[in-house]
Structure formats: structure tokens, C-alpha cells
Design brief:
- About 30% of the residues are buried.
- The chain folds into three domains: about 20-85; about 120-170, no CATH class; about 175-360, 3-Layer(aba) Sandwich (Rossmann fold).
- The N and C termini lie far apart (about 70 Å).
- It has helices at about 20-30, 35-50, 60-70, 85-100, 140-150, 195-210, 245-260, 295-310, 325-335, 350-360, and strands at about 75, 80-85, 115-120, 120-130, 165-170, 175-180, 215-225, 225-230, 265-270, 280, 285, 315-320, 340.
- It has a six-stranded mixed sheet, sandwiched between helices. The chain has a three-stranded antiparallel sheet with strand order 3-5-4. Strands 1-2 form a two-stranded antiparallel sheet.
- It is about 40% helix and about 20% strand.
- α1 (about 20-30) packs across α4 (about 85-100), α4 crosses α6 (about 195-210) and α6 (about 195-210) packs parallel to α10 (about 350-360).
- By secondary structure, it is of the alpha/beta class.
């Protein structure tokens, strides 16, 4: 009787070349260094010393030359400094998507299903009689030919308008999302990097919407002492500043953006790690970092109430678990009738993805 033969397991590398292996590390470091190529390469040299990333056949100099030749970095004509290209920016977003939403199953583009039937783009198994105005490509030829055979017979075969059946389609809606990212100083305090996971989530969400829901819109805004809109391509370069947390400014800007969007479904995602601590009134900043200031809280709650009236749910991802912060988020969420997640940095991406997908399946009101 033959037994089993056991041999040493040798794992296959997911990278087909030394360049791809180093590129994976380089793109990760670009996110951590906010797009600083020189700092990222310095880190790679340090990692190379400690973990022997390169060898005599392929060194770090070869890697840098390949980055240039393959269009990931380029030299500035004026200063001669190395710069990230659009190819690198897109690669970082794709990497973030794979890292955070890697278990996502591919689906048809633009499919936000609702309970309504009508002129959509995805056919269902249900059929109905043809009506004037139905597009020809919705006609079910199999069912129509069967009807013609039953109604007219084989000998004098013909097909009339009364024989035609069409496939029902699911009405598909579009959605507009505003992602608010807190860039106050607390996002890097206490030795914990909270801004990098937030950036990765934003880049992954942007890539998800671009590839799976191209008819949707995603706007990204950052808020510290003030709030301003940034482009998706700017996300790798995003840095935390010496700012307080002006949540009111962020919500006001988000609402202004969504008012201009014509999509019926609108929502706000807010990633933060602290309480609102700042307002701007008559050109001056009103600040209080020592507690839940009633004046700031009331302004924040009023905007949550306004969003509710406009049917704009706010989903808050709180990267902190202090009880008094949870109480604030609870009250804010109750007023808006939105949702709140108290997430660790490790689970942030999963929370965002699950809630985004769940909201996309909601019916139109």
C-alpha cells in the first residue's frame, strides 16, 4: 500500500520580479511619508540594510531607474527633484482598494438596486407585454417566438406586436458621497498614526466608486481649524496640521457640496478621533480644547438636525473609545438619525466598506 510523500513547502511569491516586490513596499511608504519620495527611498535603504531587500543582481539604484523608466516617478524640469506621477497616484489607490476591500466581489458597474421596476440597465427574470416606447434590446426573443408559435401556429408563422414580451429591468439610482477627514493635530498624537489609515480608506473608497459605481460622485473634504475640499489625487500628500477640530465648518462645506449634486441619494461619511473644539465667527476662531463646549456642541447638533431634514444621513467613524466622546457621538447620531461606528484603526476600512455597500442598496424615498 502506497503512503503519502511529504516534502518541504516552498511558498510561491506573489511578485514576478524584484521590481514588483520593491514597488509594493515603495507605494506603502509613499502613503506614510505623504508623497515624499526622498524620505520613502531613505526608508527603503534602511530596510534594505536590515532585511536585504536587494542583491548583487538587482540593487536599489536599478530600482530607482526602473521607477523612472516605467513612469512611476519623474524629475522636475526646474528643480530636478523627483516627483510622483499620475501612474503612481492611481497605483496607490488601487493598492489601498486591494488592501482594504480585498474581499469585495466584482459586480456590474453602476448597480445600486432598488425595489422599483422600470427603464433601467439590469434585466430581471420577470417579463411583461410589450408597450409602445420599450427599447428593442429589452425584447425577450425566446418568449416572443413562443407566443407567436402558440398564437399563429407553425404553418403560417408570423410575429406581431401582441406576441412580444420584454424583460423587466431594475431601476438603478446614483449616489453622492462626501467623505470628511479630520486632520487636527490629535490624529498623530500619543504615538499613534491615525491619518494614514484614514487616507488609505479614502483612496480605497475613491477607487471603488470609480471602478464599480462610475455614475456616483465622491467628494473629499478635510477639516481642522477650517474646512476645504481636496481632489482625490491629493490624498497621498495629505498631512496633519497644528489644527483644532472645526466639525461645523466641515459639515457646512459637505452640505454645500451635496446641495449642488442632483443625485437622489446623498450621504456624509466622517472620520474623526475627537470632539469639536473650534468655530469660526466673524473672521475669528472660537476655541476650547478642554471639554465639550456647549456653544460648539449646539452649532454641531444644529447642523446634524439640518442634514436630517435634507435627508442626508451622517455616518461617523470615531477612532477613539473615550466614554465622553462616545456620548457626544451618540447624541449627534440620534439627532441626525444616522449611524456611528467606534472603530479601531485596523477595522476602519471594513466598517466603511460594509456601510457604504449597505447604503447603496437602500431604496429611494
Amino acid at each position: 500500500m502506497r503512503g503519502y510523500f511529504f516534502s518541504k513547502f516552498i511558498a510561491e511569491s506573489q511578485f514576478s520580479s524584484p521590481f514588483e516586490r520593491l514597488l509594493d513596499i515603495f507605494l506603502q511608504l509613499l502613503t506614510y511619508t505623504s508623497g515624499d519620495i526622498a524620505e520613502a527611498l531613505e526608508w527603503m535603504n534602511e530596510l534594505d540594510k536590515g532585511y536585504k531587500l536587494t542583491n548583487d543582481d538587482y540593487g536599489m539604484g536599478d530600482f530607482i531607474e526602473d521607477l523612472k523608466e516605467q513612469g512611476y516617478i519623474q524629475e522636475n524640469d526646474g528643480s530636478g527633484d523627483l516627483e510622483i506621477t499620475k501612474k503612481s497616484e492611481q497605483s496607490i489607490r488601487k493598492k489601498s482598494l486591494d488592501e482594504i476591500f480585498g474581499k469585495l466581489k466584482k459586480g456590474k458597474r453602476g448597480t445600486h438596486k432598488t425595489k422599483f421596476s422600470g427603464q433601467g440597465s439590469e434585466q430581471t427574470s420577470e417579463t411583461r407585454a410589450f408597450e409602445f416606447g420599450d427599447p428593442p434590446d429589452s425584447i425577450s426573443m425566446t418568449d416572443s417566438l413562443r407566443n407567436a408559435q402558440i398564437n399563429h401556429g407553425i404553418g403560417d408563422f408570423k410575429i406581431t406586436e401582441q406576441d412580444l414580451e420584454v424583460r423587466e429591468t431594475e431601476y438603478q439610482t446614483r449616489a453622492s458621497t462626501v467623505l470628511m477627514i479630520d486632520i487636527s493635530h490629535s490624529m498623530i498624537l500619543y504615538g499613534e498614526d491615525r491619518i494614514t489609515p484614514a487616507k488609505k480608506v479614502a483612496m480605497a473608497l475613491a477607487e471603488l466608486i470609480t471602478t464599480k459605481y462610475p455614475k456616483d460622485t465622491l467628494d473629499v473634504i478635510v477639516f481642522g481649524n477650517d474646512a476645504w475640499q481636496i481632489e482625490v489625487r491629493d490624498l497621498p500628500y495629505l498631512k496633519v496640521g497644528p489644527y483644532h477640530t472645526n466639525t461645523v465648518a466641515g459639515l457646512n462645506l459637505a452640505m454645500d457640496i451635496l446641495r449642488r449634486r442632483k443625485n437622489p441619494n446623498k450621504q456624509i461619511f466622517m472620520i474623526t478621533d475627537g470632539k469639536p473644539t473650534c468655530l469660526k465667527e466673524n473672521g475669528k476662531y472660537y476655541k476650547n480644547s478642554f471639554g465639550l463646549d456647549r456653544k460648539i456642541m449646539n452649532k454641531t447638533f444644529n447642523l446634524a438636525r439640518q442634514c436630517r431634514k435634507l435627508k442626508i444621513p451622517i455616518t461617523t467613524f470615531m477612532i477613539a473609545k473615550d466614554p465622553y466622546l462616545q456620548n457626544f457621538v451618540y447624541e449627534f447620531t440620534e439627532i441626525n438619525q444616522g449611524k456611528a461606528f467606534y472603530s479601531s484603526l485596523k477595522g476602519l476600512g471594513e466598517y466603511v466598506f460594509q456601510d457604504f455597500e449597505k447604503n447603496r442598496r437602500k431604496n429611494l424615498r
